[in-house]
Amino acid sequence: MDAKFTELVEQLNGLDFKGMYGSDFLHTWDKTTDELKALYIVADALRELRENNVSSKIFDSGLAVSLFRDNSTRTRFSFSKAANLLGLELQDLDEKKSQIAHGETVRETATMISFMADVIGIRDDMYIGKGDAYMAEVSESVQQAYEDGVLDHRPTLISLQSDSDHPTQSSADMLYLINEFGGLENLKGKKVAVTWAYSPSYGKPLSCPQSLISLLPRFGMDVTLAHPEGYDLMPEVVERAKGYAAESGTTFKQVNTMDEAFEGADIVIPKSWAPFAAMEKRTNLYAEGDDAGIAALEKELLAQNATHQDWCSTTELMEKTANGQDTIFMHPLPADISGVSCEHGEVNADVFDMHRVGMYKEASYKPYAIAAMMFLQKVADPAATLKALDERNTARWFQA
Fold first, then answer.
1. Of 6, 85, 93, 281, which has the maximum CB count within 10 A?
2. One-character DSSP codes across 98-115
3. How far apart are CA 84 and CA 55, in angstroms?
4. Helix and strand tally (H, E) in the chain?
5. Residue 64 — φ and ψ, nearest 5°?
6. Contact status, residue 391 vs residue 385, Cβ threshold 8 Å
């Protein structure tokens, strides 16, 4: 293999990431800095193998089970690609076609799907407090089934987005930035604007911005969080971001205009999200089965959103950043593009088109981020296994 692959594997030496083995990956804040560094290294190493036509399959059989309780394109296909990259087959759990529709318990479902499953990926991001709670219950259920001898192994869980965190997206974002700036160490001191932007819809999850503000300060980046008054994130997540910034000697500040956030920024990440208080209210209304209350809340929030249509990424705003139109513009996609996908949205078409390639590259890292999570959770000695894959040198595809 090339020198880059060898260097990546050697970077694992000296890092303490033993806690990743046999564990779940539900939040980035559950992981140590060394464990996150190992994740980024392994993701880049797996990408090197594939791009050099070397198979990275470590499984001969087995399943990766996915459960999506919300719509998805990038994350759904990224999970599938990651499973395939390592040699697992994918099985999607459709709750409407399962006995869950007839009242089967979480514990029973989790156990039944786990007999030959090595990894379970779950997206549950729609209701405050529900997604994290559901994933915790699945984790506890498979652990108990393993301890009871029902399962001969314990499948590991990966959060594909909860109501609080989106670890696969923020990990892909980190990989993109690491590669754009030529190394993790080069991110220190970079100014990042994580900012709300207008959307004609109202219920977008808080987990994307929360994932970013919880992760970026840990690696020395100065983060500015911007949103209109009333569009607060979860208080405990904001406090966690402040704590990480203090620990790493960086800054975390909050402002109420996009102009302030974009001023001098090296990286801008504008995306819409719903107010935390409103999402708590919506969660309670759903629990009460109050359809009329939900409809009224939606009407109220759409009207509130409409008063902030000026929160849109424009060429004028980009000129306020550190590098003008060349400043890195990120978005997890799909974006609400003014004049294209909607009348008024998060970003003007000219700005989106100028940064389209960069955003597509950003998305390209997600399969490798997820594969690295799987790899580190299932492989006891990642460095040795990566070296063995390189030495085995099995072609991913054959051409005469």
1. 85
2. SGGGGT--HHHHHHHTTS
3. 11
4. 15, 11
5. -115, 120
6. no
Angle (deg, nearest 10), helices 3-11 and 33-51: 160
pLDDT at 1: 67
- Indicate whether 97 pLDDT > 90: no
Mean pLDDT of 222-250: 97
pTM exceeds 0.85: yes
Which residues is 119 bridged to in the sheet?
64, 156
Name the CA radius of gyration of the chain, rounded: 21
Q: How far apart are CA 75 and CA 77, in angstroms?
A: 6
Q: How would you classify the pairing of strands 63-68 and 191-195?
A: unpaired
Phi, psi of 156 (to 5 degrees): -100, 150
Which helix H or strand E contains 383, and what residues bound it? helix 382-392
- Nearest by Cα to 42 from 65, 72, 21: 21
pLDDT digit string, tens, across residues 40-93: 999 999 999 999 999 999 999 999 999 999 888 899 999 999 999 999 999 998
Residues facing residue 124 across a β-bridge: 162
Q: How far apart are CA 365 and CA 45, in angstroms?
A: 12
**Pairing between β-strand 117-124 and β-strand 89-92 as defined by DSSP bridges:** unpaired
Between CA 268 and CA 251 the distance in angstroms is 16
DSSP conformational letter for 90? E
